[in-house]
Write a structure and sequence with these properties.
Elements: H1 6-11, H2 14-25, H3 29-36, H4 44-57, H5 60-68, H6 82-88, H7 96-113, H8 126-136, H9 141-163
Length: about 170
């Protein structure tokens, strides 16, 4: 997949801009249109910084839509976007017990908070996610909403760098 450069992204219509960046955010059309309204972006770093600002200004239902656009942790790889599949495909065979534990934790999290659990996964085994989810279930809803949205934007920045062929970690993590 090839992502247009900053100048081309700035020149796109809001809908075309949202379509071009949809893979970074797993869709989330209202958030992407909000981000389109924050243009122009001189650099990819400016785009990600604007995504953080857009999230800070977005209403809660838009943030929930942004989180819910992401696949569940441990979901069937066939149900994920190519980028999510690459990030979560850390184990060739998923142990049934682990898959069930992740499904149970996802269900408990969504029931408690009303949105999906999103965390930066790339490079972490699924077994490392279980304790993170268990801790998250003890957090306050607003704190989890902010943490999840922060991770969502971190994921988008990581994907953007990968699509641009740049390596290395993002300057400021989730």
């Amino acid at each position: 997949m090839e992502l247009p450069g900053s100048d081309e992204l700035n020149a796109l219509s809001p809908s075309a801009f949202a379509d071009a960046l949809a893979p970074l955010f797993e869709g989330a059309p209202r958030f992407l249109h909000r981000l389109a309204g924050a243009r122009p972006f001189e650099t990819d770093s400016a785009l990600i910084a604007s995504a953080r600002e857009a999230a800070a200004a977005a209403p809660e239902d838009e943030l929930v839509e942004l989180l819910d656009a992401h696949p569940r942790i441990g979901a069937d790889l066939d149900e994920m976007s190519d980028l999510s599949r690459a990030e979560q495909d850390d184990e060739v065979v998923t142990v049934d017990a682990l898959a069930q534990e992740l499904a149970d934790l996802n269900a408990a999290y969504e029931q408690r908070f009303g949105f999906r659990y999103v965390v930066f996964v790339a490079g972490r085994p699924r077994t490392a996610i279980v304790p993170l989810m268990e801790v998250a279930l003890r957090n306050e809803r607003d704190a989890e909403l902010r943490r999840g949205v922060g991770d969502t934007i971190y994921i988008a920045g990581d994907r953007l760098r990968a699509l641009r062929g740049k390596s290395g970690g993002q300057e400021d993590g989730p």
